[in-house]
Amino acid sequence: MAAIDGGTFVPLYGATNKKPVKVAPFKLDVYPVTYEQYLAFVKKYPEYSRSKMKGLFADKSYLSQWKSDFDFGKNNLSNAPITNVSWFAAKKYCECQGKRLPTMDEWEFVAMADEKRVDARTKEEFNKYIMSWYEKPNAYANPIGKTFKNYWGVYDMHGLVWEWTADFNSIFLSGESRKDKATDKNLFCGSGSVNATDLMNYAAFMRYAFRGSLKANYTTRNLGFRCAKD
Fold this sequence. Notes:
About 25% of the residues lie in helices and about 10% in strands. The chain has about 230 residues and is of the alpha+beta class. The chain has a 3-stranded antiparallel sheet with strand order 1-4-7, with no helix packed on it. Strands 2-3 form a two-stranded antiparallel ribbon. It starts with a strand and ends with a strand.
């Protein structure tokens, strides 16, 4: 795991205001969780294997690319990021490692770094790199660690898979009751992307819009995860 010093930053999307968010020091996995690691998990906890997984906690696509319960098949690299895993399953995996899923603010804080800068979001070349990945098909099939090593020593924040966060759907919620619907609806309609006038905002818009479309039992071919720790 990489040690993240923490700090403050202003999220580009999903924030109820434009005040800086404080991120406390924490640790984050250097790489996303791989097929090999997840196979070891389901062997130890067979209730999370494909045939035993309850529909309440994962939809029908859960590990659908696997050959069988304990065989991810020859077409999937052992060191590629595991995908088609629900939020419930990712959360359980991290807990069984004595870890947890990173919060959205933690993930975004680490993801805004390039090789040399803590915050590279204003750099055109950095945002072009992110946008070029969004356009590439099947990046999820590639092995971990082939993207750049960022300032914190973390790989694959961009360029491999989308990743679950602990509070992935928090952008729908506001208010103490968590029932207040008065969130920024522009984020999830055409005007949201129109208002994203530069690459930096558009790249962030895509991430938040994707997260906002998810439910905890969803699984998709390009969605994986990594773990964090206090």
